[in-house]
Amino acid sequence: MIHWHQYEPVLLTDLYEITMAASYFREGKGGEATFSLYIRDCPSVRGYFVAAGLESFLNVLENFRFSPEAIDYLRSLGRFSEDFLEFLRRLRFSGTVRALPEGTIFFPYEPIIEITAPIIEGQLLESLLMNIFHIEILIASKASRCVEVAKGRGLVDFSLRRTHGVDAAVKVARSSYLVGFLGTSNLMAGKLYDIPVFGTMAHSFVMSFEHEMDAFMAYAKTFPETTVLLLDTYDTIRAAHKAVEVARWLKERGIKLKGVRLDSGDLVELSHQVKDILRSHGFDDVAIMASGSLDEYRLHELLASGAYIDVVGIGTKMGVSADAPYLDLAYKLVEYEGKPVLKLSPGKRSLVSPKQVFRYYDKNGLMDYDVLTTSWDSSERGEPLLIEVVRGGRIVRDLGGLKVARRYFQEQYSRLPEDLKELEPTRSYNVVIGRPLLELEERTAQAKRSQS
Amino acid sequence: MIHWHQYEPVLLTDLYEITMAASYFREGKGGEATFSLYIRDCPSVRGYFVAAGLESFLNVLENFRFSPEAIDYLRSLGRFSEDFLEFLRRLRFSGTVRALPEGTIFFPYEPIIEITAPIIEGQLLESLLMNIFHIEILIASKASRCVEVAKGRGLVDFSLRRTHGVDAAVKVARSSYLVGFLGTSNLMAGKLYDIPVFGTMAHSFVMSFEHEMDAFMAYAKTFPETTVLLLDTYDTIRAAHKAVEVARWLKERGIKLKGVRLDSGDLVELSHQVKDILRSHGFDDVAIMASGSLDEYRLHELLASGAYIDVVGIGTKMGVSADAPYLDLAYKLVEYEGKPVLKLSPGKRSLVSPKQVFRYYDKNGLMDYDVLTTSWDSSERGEPLLIEVVRGGRIVRDLGGLKVARRYFQEQYSRLPEDLKELEPTRSYNVVIGRPLLELEERTAQAKRSQS
User: Fold this and answer.
1) How many angstroms separate the CA of residue B381 from the nearest CA in chain A?
2) Residues B348-358: what's their mean pLDDT?
3) Rounded distance, CA A55 to CA B167, Å?
4) What's the pTM value of the predicted model, to 2 decimals?
5) What φ, ψ does residue B187 adopt, rounded to 5°?
6) Are B344 and A5 a contacting pair at CB < 8 A?
């Protein structure tokens, strides 16, 4: 079996989730707890985040059970009692999940998902839940910046070869499509999520032929309708003239050359030279595709310098979120047996209670401010963002999958103020803490300080 | 089915690998090709790299076949002929693989793995092969720096919650163990690779009890032999006094408190205060564990400032290789049908031919320099580093798995010059290009320039 086919949700966790569960079990501690997932700090190069990961998480939640092999492995560690292992074997998730729909734009301290369940269940989900949401939010938020900079040009995810592992590869394709990429080169993601796939040839293809022109013609004969010729294996300008010959050959057969791709060199200069060559021979409609170490910063520079680009392949730097490769994501216990709980930690704020976010818009329909408050605060009239998706362990609301989320994101994004879309935003969006939440937090902190 | 259980090796690829294969197939182009994987540029904060990924890759290679579902998906794209799809359905890897054993220390431009096979086979492997080696080398090379800085203190991988996806989580645990970590918190990695697992309690555990002391005692009763108390939920110093009480309670039962953990605050100051409290009550042998945003830079600072730490939990920053989250890894065609091939790309060097690396040691047994040359150069007397692991599509050499690789790395690392182990190395290791390779490269480049 392939190594990743052996991955089990219940074991994709930190040992301490299981030791804590064992201790809760021994103490007979089965009270209901609420855990909340949120981002504490915003990297200076992010003006907003995009919610993603819920579909993957629900997929895992439905399969969250300890197999006989998982139980055997835990037994082999020599730490757990047989009655606890039997308890695990029977365990199924029985709780409630409230979450931001995928594609929601959100900000630090706003809950992304809240789990309310017997404490052992909420605790056991922690590590895997964080892993899933972290990568998908990280990439959706990064890729959205690329879409902004591209100003309507098509973007294609080319990151598979250098994402961190194969799970990230698929998640990156999905998350970038969620925020408006045209598609991906990644076939597995294409198959799993019905994302359009793109791609034609690599340098090695050109190099394997005696002459570059042989490679171009071999490709055009195999895929006349979808040929995109890679021009920079030897000399981009000479290759552009060969592309004209291919375009002519195709035209004689009533077919249009789809595009050419530039993957190295001075893309500003080369894109114009290539465009001129194509245009001067009457092939103005051949798309110019650019790739090679591109991200939102580089693409912004290229376009500001007047590069002529129709379609962009975005790879490694987006696929690993190179300028901010991790987020300060936290999953915290906020309520136990109906009582708010709080960690007192110097320098880090932690907010008690199950929560809701209400969004307010200005008269132009743009996002104005959010109110972050307790889930039971009935005084707010804004748009509530968290919705219930699981109750009693069962999915109660079908969110409609990737394409619905993609449209939802586009609608949201059109209402995000322009200054928050900047590559280096100069202000933070206004998130107001509701009075009931503030008061509850203060009371809880005082009680804790006087007692511990 | 869980999404990652549906991942298939043959579809974890870029579309262009398949379109190129289709064009080769149509042209009847089945000649033997050699592809070489290497790192072009070394980030300034890496003095060396550690080979890793071979076991995962061979595991995938053994399972590299197009399932009926994969063929159906390709057919649905509407681009591929039925005879090509039938060819893919029957395709098995039939070639030769030469590689650096896992744990080998290597440098830019040295081949990590070379595939010699009919060109379609070598090409189809590209994307997934790169993905696998990239993450494992990235993390092994990063984690090795943490081990260096720790100067013999135990390190544990705590990165699961923020690695990029679940595949990365398991690979990070494996790669960090390969270079000398004590173990991981990640149970899936523990089970798959027989890596020791560590972990005790989170803040949420402490917070779920009315009193901190109740949480400590509940844990100590469940796991008396392996208790590590987390001290910083409310007030670290007060918690240290409670830890003394727990240590006393355990001592009355003939058991030693294993450790305490500090996860926030001024770790230099707090570690000494906590150590003093434990020592003054006769519990000098309780280990002090530190965690929380640690990597080799922060750990170096802490230890230089005199922090008292026995064991270290290393998380996110190692798990995403935050200071260098990707490597300039390339997989290039270097020979086709016995002839060297070369890409002429401004600013990027590319080396022709199947190759071998010969390592030379100085009189103290330390690594002195490497010679990178053609695979058929018989003039070198150094230690050859690449070995044949697959022939005719079958694994012909069992490399012995993770523990053998771990010992091999330790042996290698003891022979690496000290200045290359620095956090910011001031020199590069000397890799000499052998004369036969230089001459071949020059001849090939000339021929290509005159022709294309």
Assistant:
1) 32
2) 88
3) 18
4) 0.97
5) -65, -35
6) no
- B3-139+324-451: CATH number: 3.20.140.10
Residue A80 has pLDDT above 90, yes or no: yes
- Quick one: which of A399, A445, A293 has its CA closest to A58? A399
Handedness of CA B319, B321, B326, B329 (dihedral sign): negative
Three-state DSSP state, A430: coil
B window 184-243, beta carbon within 8 A of A: 185-188, 190-192, 197-205, 207-208, 211-212, 218-219, 221-223, 226, 232-235, 238
Fold of B150-319: TIM Barrel (3.20.20)
B188 and A11 in contact (C-beta within 8 Å)? yes
**CB spacing of B167 vs A162 below 8 angstroms:** no
Strands A228-230 and A259-262, sheet pairing:
parallel
Shortest alpha-carbon distance between residue A82 and chain B (Å):
13
Given a contact cutoff of 8 angstroms between Cβ atoms, the answer to whether A171 and A180 are in contact is no
Mean pLDDT on A78-86: 97
Whole-number Å distance between alpha carbons of B357 and A257 = 44
Q: How many Å apart are CA B364 and CA B380, to the nearest integer?
A: 20
Beta bridge partners of residue A341, listed in sequence order: none
If phi > 0 it is left, if psi is from -120 to 50 it is alpha, else beta; for residue A152 that is: left
DSSP H helices in B151-227: 165-178, 187-193, 203-207, 212-222
Dig out the tokens for A318 from the structure: 């987006």
Predicted local distance difference test score (pLDDT) of residue A203: 94
Per CATH, the number for A149-319 is 3.20.20.70
Residues of each domain in chain A carrying CATH 3.20.20.70: 149-319
Contact B12 A123 (CB under 8 A): no
Start and end residues for every CATH 3.20.140.10 domain found in chain A = 3-139+324-451
Among candidate residues A67, A69, A115, the one with its CA nearest the CA of residue A91: A67
DSSP string, B254-318: T----EEEE-SS-HHHHHHHHHHHHHHTT-TT-EEEE-SS--HHHHHHHHHTT---SEEEE-HHH
ipTM (interface predicted TM): 0.97
Give me the amino acid identity at A346. P
